[in-house]
Design brief:
Strand content: 25-35%
Distance between the termini: 31 Å
CATH class of the largest domain: Alpha Beta
GO molecular function, one term: prephenate dehydratase activity
Number of domains: 3
Oligomer: single chain
Catalytic activity: prephenate + H(+) = 3-phenylpyruvate + CO2 + H2O
Pathway: Amino-acid biosynthesis; L-phenylalanine biosynthesis; phenylpyruvate from prephenate: step 1/1
Structural class: alpha/beta
Keywords: Amino-acid biosynthesis, Aromatic amino acid biosynthesis, Lyase, Phenylalanine biosynthesis
Mean pLDDT: 91
CATH superfamily of the largest domain: Periplasmic binding protein-like II
Low-confidence stretches: none
Helix content: 25-40%
Shape: elongated
Number of strands: 15
CATH topology of the largest domain: D-Maltodextrin-Binding Protein, domain 2
Organism: Limimaricola hongkongensis DSM 17492
Length: about 280
């Protein structure tokens, strides 16, 4: 599929890596924020959006699940990217010279052990690729960046240390968003269905709403809650299940869910990524 795919960050970011791996024929479109990436798809400046939602080490990406239900977009795919963190320095620099490492706060938190071992002081930057660009522009061998090898290639930096993350299965999950839903059965690892809902204001409503999935043998892989509009009494839930809306057991589970909810909105139907069964990030 030709076209453009938007992601948050600069060229060389892990979102760029996700685009290159999942949609290699599409042109990556860097965006400053997740909101900008979503808006690029809404406006038609991009055909798809690659949105990071959770990391196996750091947890879920803040605010993203607030953005998705109001985006007007639909989830059509997922991608798991193995996050290898590298220490990048200016040409000719040596690891022993490095005093500081700059990156997004998420990456800094994922390689504390290496930084501590080498007495490198972490500095928070705007994002991973932006930090690499800033280090390249500064040209000081005492200062390095934590980023991908793609960023090293783009900004002309040397890789001073490879794969320095604390956990050897560090993985980020991305959702691929589109203007139109795709309800076809596809992929080789089964289908996933995502939706948001609000429960009715009755005792044990959430417990009863979830019961339909258990009794009908539908595996729920994710359930997250968050406030709506800043009100403690207005809670919305984001959920993902294994299966397709046309599956009989899924239909029965949704029938029971509907009885105990004020609203249900389908967010997307997409093929499960094969890597989901290898290492799924926690929510």
């Amino acid at each position: 599929m030709a076209g453009r795919i938007a992601f948050q960050g600069e060229l060389g970011a892990y979102g760029h890596q996700a685009c290159a791996e999942a949609r290699p024929k599409m042109e990556p479109l860097p965006c400053t924020t997740f909101e900008d990436a979503i808006e690029a798809v809404r406006r038609g400046d991009a055909d798809l959006g690659m949105i990071a939602v959770e990391n196996s080490t750091y947890g879920r990406v803040a605010d993203v699940h607030h953005l998705l239900p109001e985006s007007g977009l639909h989830i059509v795919d997922e991608a798991f990217v193995r996050v290898h963190i590298n220490l990048l320095g200016v040409k000719g620099a040596r690891l022993a010279q490095v005093e500081t490492a700059t990156s997004h706060t998420v990456l800094l938190g994922q390689c504390r052990g290496f930084l501590r071992e080498h007495s490198i002081t972490p500095h928070t930057g705007a994002d991973t690729a932006g930090s690499a660009r800033a280090i390249a522009e500064a040209g000081d061998p005492r200062h390095a960046a934590l980023a991908s090898e793609i960023a090293a290639d783009i900004y002309g930096l040397d890789v001073l240390a490879r794969h320095i993350e604390d956990h050897d299965r560090n993985t980020t999950r991305f959702l691929v968003m589109a203007r139109e839903p795709d309800l076809k059965r596809r992929g080789s690892a089964g289908m996933m269905t995502s939706f948001v809902f609000r429960v009715r204001n009755i005792p044990a409503a959430l417990y009863k709403a979830m019961g339909g999935f258990a009794t009908n043998g539908v595996n729920m892989t994710k359930l997250e809650s968050y406030m709506v509009g800043g009100h403690f009494t207005a809670t919305q839930f984001y959920a993902e299940i294994e299966g397709h809306p046309d599956d009989r057991n899924v239909q029965l589970a949704f029938d029971e869910l509907d009885y105990f909810t004020d609203s249900i909105r389908l967010m997307g139907v997409f093929p499960a990524a094969p890597r989901r069964h290898e290492t799924a990030p926690r929510g």
